[in-house]
C-alpha cells in the first residue's frame, strides 16, 4: 500500500511562513517532510474542515495549523499556515477557486473593505483623490460616491480575469484608499487588472497587455483542481530542497516562484534562437537564469559545460554566477560556462595564441589613438572621431574580411554616406592604423572581439567540412545571453559560431531602452533569426508604480529598436508595488546641490547598510560626492567595474556603473543641462545628426537605467538648468 503523498506549497502560503519564528519555520519543514512520507500519520491530525469540501487542516506544532486543499487523491496543496486560534474562526473569509482565465488556483480573501483600521481612517476622509489617467502620479479628484469600476460589466471584469467572489466588493469601491486596501490582499491578476483600469488603460489594452499573456491555452474546468495545480498560473513549490532553502536558508522568492508569463518563457521549446525583451526589473535576468537551469536539467549527465551564460560586463557576470549558485547550487554551476563577453572573446584569442602578447587598451581611448595616428602620419582630411567610429562599428564591428566586403557593407546609423573612393581610403588607413597599434604592442577589445569572431567562424566552417567524428564540435549546446542589447555584431558572430543552429540554440534577454554602449545590430543579418520567437515581459518586480511612471516620462519621444530591424516600445510596462512619488530638487550651484544630497541622506537617517546609492554623471562628480559624504562622517563606497567595493556604506558611482544593480533608495544627482546629455555631443548636432541622435539616446538610456534601479524611493536633483530629459511636468514637481 502506498503511504506517501504529494504536497506542494502555494506561493501565498510561503509569505505567511516567512513571517514565522525560526523554530516555527523549522516545524513547517518537519511537517511537510512527515506529511509527504505519510499524511495519515496520527500526529498530523489531518481532517476535513467545514466550508470548502476540499479544505483540510493538519497540525504543524502546538501553535500552528496547515490549511490544505485536497486537489486529488493523495495530492495536497498547502494554501495557508495559521495560528490554531484562527483556523476555525476564519474559514468563511477565504475562498479557493480556479481562475477561469488563467486556470490557476487562487486564494481569495473575502474580508470586507474598510475592516482594517487604516482602511477605515483613510476611506472616511472624503478629500481622498484618485488618479484617472495612465500616470499614477497625476491625481484628479473624483466624487466620493461614484463607483470606480462602474463603467465595466461583471462579464467584462471576469473576462479580464478578476476573481469572481470579489465582484460585489469591487463594485462597491468608490475611493482609491478602498481600492488599495482590497488590492493588498487580492489575487495577483485581479490586482494587475484593476490597477491597469484604474490607471486609465482601456479595456482592450488591459486584455492584451495584462490578461492575454497569462491566459491558459486549453479550456478551463473550474472544478478540476488536479489540472489547475499543474498549470504555470498556480505558483507552487514542490520539491523538498526548494522548500528547505525557503525555510531554513535565506532565499529569494525569484528562486522559486515564477510569474506564469516568466515560466512559459523558461519552459518553452523554441525552434531556433529566442529573445525575451521587457522593461527594467521585469525579471529578464531571472528568466535567463531559470532557462539555464531548465536546459541543464535536460542534459545528459557529464562533467563538461555545454551551456554558455554570458553578459556584457564583469560585475554582471559575477552576479549571474552568484544567483545561479543560489538557484541550482554547485551541481548546476558546474555545467555552465559563466563569463562576460569580452573575456570569452579574449579566451578564444589566447587559446589560438592570436594575441601576440599585446596589451589591451580601453575602447574609449580609440578616438585619441586615431588622432595621434593621424598627426604622426600627417594624414589630414579625415576626422579622428569619424574614423574611430567607422573602424570600430563597421570594419571591426561587422567582421569585414576584405576591402571588397567594405565596399558592399551596410552602414546603418553611421550618418554620412561614403562613396567607393572614400571607402578605399578609409580601408587603407584602417590597415595602417592596425599595424601602427601593433607596433606599439597594443590592441582594443573591439579588435579582440573581431579576431575571436573570425577564429570561431573558421572553426565552425572547418567542423562542418569535416566528416563525423570531427575534432571540432560546436563549443556549446546552448547559449544564453543577458543584456543582449549591448553586444556588438562581432560578439554575435562569435556566439553564433559557437553553437550549432537548431532548437533551443540561443536564448537572449535584454532591453534596447537600456542600451548604454553604442552597439546597434540587426540579428537576422548575423545569422540569428528570432522572428516569431520574440516575447516581452511587462510586469516590474523592482520599482514602484510611482517611480516607473516618472522613469517612463524620461523616455518621452524616443524610438527604440527590437534588435532585428523593427521597433519596440514599453507598452504595458507596469508595477504592482506602491510607494511615494519621486522627488525632484533643483539647486543654484553644484556646491548647493551637494548640500541637498547630504541633507537628503540625513533625512533618510544616514543608512550605511548599502541600501542607499548616489548616482552622478562623471567620475569627478563622484569624487566630489564622496568627499562631501565623508565630511559628514559617512562611509562612501565607490562602485567600480566589478561593482561596489564593499557591501556596506553609501554607494556612489557614475551612471554606467548602475547597470544590473538595485537599491532601496537612490539619488540621481547632477541631472543638469550640459551634463545629461553630455555637452560634448552637441558638436555632432550639425556635422553628424545621426550620431548626435544616437549619443543623445544613449545618455537618455543611462538616466532611465539609473532611475529604474530604485526600489522604494528616488530623488533626482540638478544645479542650474535641469536636463532636457526631465519633462516640464517632472520639473514642476520640484521641492522648494
Ligand atoms: N518571479 C519573481 N518573483 C519574485 N521576484 C522577482 C521575480 N522576477 C523578478 N524578480 C525580482 O525583480 C528584480 C528584477 O529582476 P531582474 O534583475 O531579473 O530584472 P531585469 O528585467 O533583468 O531588470 P533590468 O532590465 O533592469 O536589468 C529582482 O530583484 C528579482 O529578484
TrEMBL record:
Protein name, entry field: DNA 3'-5' helicase
Single GO MF descriptor: helicase activity
Domain UvrD-like helicase ATP-binding: 257-544
SUPFAM superfamilies cross-referenced by the UniProt entry: P-loop containing nucleoside triphosphate hydrolases
EC numbers for this chain: 5.6.2.4
Reactions catalysed according to its record: Couples ATP hydrolysis with the unwinding of duplex DNA by translocating in the 3'-5' direction; ATP + H2O = ADP + phosphate + H(+)
Phylogenetic lineage: Bacteria, Bacillati, Actinomycetota, Actinomycetes, Micromonosporales
Enzyme class: isomerase
Residues at which ATP binds: 278-285
Alphabetic keyword roster: ATP-binding, Helicase, Hydrolase, Isomerase, Nucleotide-binding
Superkingdom of source: Bacteria
Amino acid at each position: 500500500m502506498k503511504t506517501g503523498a504529494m504536497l506542494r506549497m502555494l506561493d501565498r502560503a510561503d509569505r505567511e511562513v516567512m513571517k514565522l519564528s525560526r523554530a516555527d519555520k523549522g516545524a513547517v519543514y518537519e511537517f511537510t517532510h512527515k506529511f509527504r512520507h505519510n499524511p495519515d500519520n496520527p500526529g498530523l491530525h489531518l481532517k476535513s474542515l467545514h466550508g470548502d469540501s476540499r479544505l483540510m487542516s493538519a497540525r504543524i506544532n502546538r501553535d500552528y495549523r496547515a490549511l490544505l486543499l485536497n486537489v486529488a487523491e493523495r495530492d495536497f496543496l498547502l494554501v495557508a499556515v495559521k495560528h490554531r486560534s484562527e483556523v476555525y474562526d476564519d474559514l468563511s473569509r477565504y475562498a479557493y477557486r480556479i481562475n477561469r482565465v488563467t486556470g490557476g488556483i487562487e486564494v481569495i480573501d473575502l474580508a470586507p473593505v474598510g475592516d482594517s483600521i487604516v482602511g477605515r481612517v483613510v476611506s472616511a476622509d472624503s478629500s481622498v483623490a484618485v488618479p484617472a489617467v495612465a500616470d499614477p502620479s497625476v491625481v484628479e479628484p473624483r466624487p466620493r460616491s461614484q463607483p470606480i469600476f462602474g463603467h465595466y460589466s461583471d462579464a467584462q471584469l471576469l473576462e479580464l480575469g478578476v476573481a469572481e467572489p470579489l465582484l460585489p466588493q469591487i463594485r462597491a469601491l468608490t475611493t482609491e484608499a478602498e481600492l488599495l486596501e482590497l488590492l493588498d490582499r487580492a489575487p495577483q491578476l485581479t490586482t494587475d487588472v484593476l490597477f491597469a483600469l484604474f490607471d486609465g488603460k482601456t479595456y482592450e489594452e488591459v486584455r492584451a497587455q495584462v490578461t492575454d499573456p497569462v491566459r491558459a491555452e486549453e479550456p478551463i474546468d473550474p472544478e478540476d483542481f488536479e489540472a489547475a495545480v499543474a498549470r504555470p498560473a498556480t505558483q507552487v513549490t514542490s520539491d523538498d530542497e526548494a522548500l528547505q532553502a525557503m525555510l531554513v536558508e535565506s532565499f529569494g522568492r525569484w528562486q522559486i516562484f515564477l510569474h506564469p508569463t516568466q515560466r512559459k518563457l523558461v519552459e518553452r521549446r523554441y525552434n531556433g534562437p529566442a529573445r525575451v525583451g521587457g522593461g527594467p526589473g521585469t525579471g529578464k535576468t531571472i528568466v535567463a537564469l531559470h532557462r539555464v537551469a531548465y536546459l541543464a536539467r535536460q542534459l545528459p549527465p557529464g562533467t563538461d559545460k555545454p551551456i554558455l551564460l554570458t553578459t556584457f560586463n564583469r560585475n554582471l557576470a559575477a552576479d549571474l554566477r552568484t544567483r545561479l549558485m543560489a538557484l541550482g547550487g554547485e551541481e548546476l554551476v558546474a555545467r555552465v560556462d559563466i563569463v562576460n563577453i569580452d573575456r570569452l572573446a579574449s579566451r578564444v584569442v589566447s587559446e589560438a595564441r592570436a594575441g601576440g602578447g599585446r596589451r589591451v587598451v580601453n575602447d574609449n581611448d580609440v578616438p585619441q589613438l586615431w588622432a595621434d595616428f593621424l598627426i604622426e602620419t600627417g594624414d589630414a582630411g579625415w576626422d579622428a572621431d569619424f574614423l574611430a567610429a567607422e573602424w570600430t562599428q563597421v570594419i571591426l564591428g561587422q567582421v569585414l574580411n576584405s576591402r571588397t566586403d567594405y565596399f558592399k557593407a551596410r552602414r546603418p546609423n553611421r550618418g554620412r554616406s561614403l562613396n567607393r573612393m572614400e571607402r578605399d581610403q578609409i580601408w587603407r588607413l584602417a590597415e595602417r592604423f592596425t599595424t601602427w597599434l601593433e607596433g606599439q604592442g597594443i590592441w582594443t577589445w573591439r579588435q579582440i572581439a573581431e579576431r575571436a569572431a573570425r577564429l570561431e567562424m573558421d572553426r565552425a566552417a572547418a567542423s562542418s567540412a569535416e566528416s563525423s567524428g570531427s575534432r571540432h564540435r560546436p563549443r556549446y549546446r546552448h547559449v544564453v545571453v543577458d543584456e543582449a542589447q549591448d553586444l556588438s555584431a562581432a560578439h554575435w558572430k562569435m556566439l553564433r559560431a559557437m553553437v550549432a543552429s537548431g532548437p533551443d540554440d540561443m536564448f537572449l534577454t535584454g532591453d534596447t531602452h537600456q542600451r548604454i554602449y553604442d552597439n546597434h545590430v540587426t540579428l537576422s543579418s548575423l545569422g540569428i533569426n528570432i522572428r516569431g520567437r520574440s516575447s516581452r515581459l511587462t510586469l516590474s518586480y523592482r520599482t514602484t508604480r510611482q517611480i516607473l511612471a516618472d522613469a517612463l516620462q524620461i523616455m518621452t519621444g524616443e524610438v527604440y529598436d527590437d534588435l532585428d530591424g523593427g521597433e519596440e516600445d514599453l507598452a504595458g510596462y507596469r508595477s504592482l508595488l506602491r510607494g511615494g512619488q519621486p522627488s525632484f530638487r533643483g539647486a543654484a550651484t553644484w556646491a548647493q546641490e551637494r548640500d541637498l544630497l547630504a541633507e537628503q541622506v540625513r533625512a533618510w537617517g544616514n543608512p550605511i547598510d548599502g541600501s542607499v546609492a548616489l548616482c552622478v554623471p562623471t567620475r569627478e562628480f563622484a569624487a566630489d560626492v564622496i568627499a562631501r559624504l565623508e565630511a559628514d562622517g559617512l562611509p562612501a563606497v565607490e562602485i567600480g567595474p566589478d561593482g561596489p567595493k564593499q557591501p556596506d556604506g553609501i554607494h556612489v558611482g557614475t551612471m554606467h556603473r548602475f547597470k544590473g544593480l538595485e537599491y532601496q533608495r537612490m539619488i540621481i544627482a547632477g541631472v543638469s543641462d550640459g551634463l545629461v546629455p553630455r555637452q560634448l555631443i552637441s558638436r555632432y548636432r550639425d556635422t553628424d545628426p545621426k550620431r548626435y541622435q544616437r549619443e543623445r539616446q544613449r545618455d537618455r538610456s543611462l538616466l532611465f537605467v539609473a532611475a529604474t534601479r530604485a526600489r522604494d524611493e528616488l530623488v533626482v536633483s540638478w544645479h542650474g538648468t535641469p536636463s532636457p530629459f526631465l519633462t516640464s511636468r517632472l520639473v514642476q514637481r520640484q521641492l522648494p
